[in-house]
Amino acid sequence: MSERKAKFNIKPFRAHVPMDQSSASTTWNALARAIDEIYNRNASQLSFEELYRNAYNLVLHKHGALLYEGVSDKISSHLAQTVQRLADIPDSSLLDDMARTWAEHQITMIMVRDILMYMDRTYVSAQRRRPVYELGLHLFRIIVWEHPRIQDRVRDLLLNAIASERAGLLTDDRTLLKANLGMLLELGQADHSNVYERDFEGVFLASTQEFYRNESLCYLSQNSATDYVTKATKRMEEEKERGSALALPSTTESPLQNIVHMELIERHARTLVEMPQSGFAALLKDETKTQEMMEMFDLFVRVPSSVDNLREALCERIKTDGKALLADQEKGASDAASFVRGVLGMRDRYDHVVTVSFRGEKRAQKRMKESFEHFLNEDVRAASCLAVYVDELLRVGLKGSTEAQVKDELQKVITVFRYLSDKDVFENFYKQHLAKRLLGGRSVSDDAERAMVSELKAECGYQFTTKLEGMFNDMRISRDMRDSYNAHKSLNVRSVGGKKPLDMEVDVLTLGNWPSQNVKPCQLPKQVQAAIELFEKFYLDKHTGRKLAWQTSAGQAEVKATFANGKRHDLLVSTYQMCILMLFNEKNSYTLGQIRTATQIPDMELRRHLISLCTPKHRILKKGSKGRGINSDDDTFTFNPEYSSKLKRVRIPLVKESSVNPASATPAQSPSTVPAHVEEDRRHLVEAAIVRIMKARKSLSHNDLIAEVTRQLSNRFNPTPQFIKKRIESLIEREYLERADADRRIYQYVA
């Protein structure tokens, strides 16, 4: 079997033959016919591989310019035919035909681009010409879109369709609007010509502004504010949904929303607040309109600056209601406790408004707080009323309350307390009421009293409550002292003259802790004076170096009185009343002057206590003159043996000072006036703060010193700059401070 050898034929290398102009023209003509077929939708009969090779060869043989210009002319030719057709189409179908033409043009250009891909990669890049697809979009813009019979009509049809939709009329399919708007966007992006912004967006935004301006003015003039809010909210939601459906770019969405907000909200914000009956200010008067106010807030919050109108309306409403409460209290239409209950009711109501209607907004909470502070700090009356309200709570209001209820009520008090700038004035009034409760045993609960002090301590610091805690400590020590004294008396004190010494319970109080009573002691009955001497000896033996000052203007006594037919009553009276009644053991009748001389009771207090013993309900003494008041020192008072009561133990209450003798009564202190001793305490506090600050800083400017003093004392009261300046001048006079030689506005500490 023989082997067959393979034969190889080696041919010489074929030289490169360049394509001549004639061949290039022939090749281009083939490509041109193919492009025509693509435009005519006969692309299925074409060989894209062959067409790609032809385009490749033209570019490869340096005929790229022929190919590029030919393609440009061919596209232009077809678009010219297209625009003539579109120009004659009626408005009713123009958007539809425009959208279809644009879609077909995009498909055509994609197919042409695929054939001429090699040209895009080489010739176009090297010559810095437009890529084929972008060239097609560019030619579409200048030939079709910018045709005088196309651009204006399409734009007007788009605007009219959107306007009809806003008017609630049937409109063209949104897909047509979206397609035409998409065409403008793509034309501008491909050509870097801002077609969309230049030819549509500006006119669209202007027409939107005009539409909503006219509609809002018309609707608001014929409807209530709450109806307008519903309408405006619906309009904004519709506009947002329409923008999303039409795929509007963010560059349009943002200014579009700004225009809608401006015309529907910002332009009418004040009107919506002030409209009678239905405006936000009117809604605030009705506790049931929380939902309507919330809807208005939700609308306004889209334009943050407009919410200030709602906050301002809230402030004005709170101030107006607060001034009404103050006016009622000033006229006597409501007592102090009722005033505070009114403030608490206001606070609960407007806190609910802020929490629900303002959705708990922090700035609204701050403005509410400032509004309460504004009317509560117009004078010191609010501090006095709050102290009276707390006194009522701790005497009777909290009786039978659980621990949780007590805490809740005290927390409400602290809420109002936080609004007060003159906290030291409240402390002054509170201390006076606390002293009466502790000394009279009228507190509903020691735990409640201490809980209140704890709340104040947590709010203002330990210095604020040091004296209050000292009062409780004095009462505790006094209870122990009474037990010790009673044990001592039972063992060591014998009857004097066959009579047992009076039983006396003494509260020993630290002078600095309690409200000062600068009243001269009255002349006490001999039996009482003897009991006092016994207690003083016992006390001073145990506590050497101390001094006791008896406060006869305070205290209570139980007097056993015998009337006609041997009827007896135990009279619960004040110390002054006890001194007066004991005189009638010696004789039945005295004049006012005689009683004053015998008891040394101050005139106004004497008159008040005498009238209390002559009231129709408790007529223990008979007054010689007629009328409610006491006319002169010669007015007589006679023991009434016919007095009777159903009760064995009878408490004799004191009449008000104003009912004693209106003509001679001391004028009431102005509600705006700070009590004199509080003013004095403030002077000391400010001076102490100044010295403390300057001792630490050594040197400080006037404004910085004012600011630091105000900051340190803000938890007690807010001193005015003028008040601080006076104290600085006083300290300079006393050589605690001096002015710097170089700058008189600088203070220096003098060691």
What brief labels describe this structure?
29 helices; mainly alpha; 3-stranded mixed β-sheet; Ribosomal Protein S5, domain 2; isopeptide bond; WH-like_DNA-bd_sf; 3-stranded antiparallel β-sheet; 751 residues; Arc Repressor Mutant, subunit A; single chain; 5 helical Cullin repeat like
Summarize the structure in words.
There is one protein chain. A hairpin with a 6-residue loop joins strand 8 (737-739) and strand 9. Residues 662-669 have low confidence and may be disordered. This protein is mainly alpha-helical. Strands 1-2-6 form a three-stranded mixed beta sheet. It has a three-stranded antiparallel beta sheet with strand order 3-5-4. The chain is elongated. 28% of the residues are buried. It has helices at 21-39, 48-60, 64-87, 91-115, 117-127, 132-145, 151-166, 174-191, 195-222, 225-245, 250-264, 269-274, 280-283, 290-300, 307-331, 336-357, 362-376, 381-397, 403-419, 423-440, 446-460, 462-492, 526-542, 575-583, 592-599, 603-612, 676-697, 702-713, 721-733, and strands at residues 556-562, 568-574, 589-591, 621-623, 636-639, 649-651, 699-701, 737-739, 746-749. Among the domains are: 21-147, 5 helical Cullin repeat like; 556-657, Ribosomal Protein S5, domain 2 (2-Layer Sandwich); 676-749, Winged helix-like DNA-binding domain superfamily/Winged helix DNA-binding domain (Arc Repressor Mutant, subunit A, Orthogonal Bundle), CATH 1.10.10.10. The chain is built from 29 helices and nine strands. Helix 2 (48-60) packs parallel to helix 5 and helix 15 runs parallel beside helix 17 (362-376).
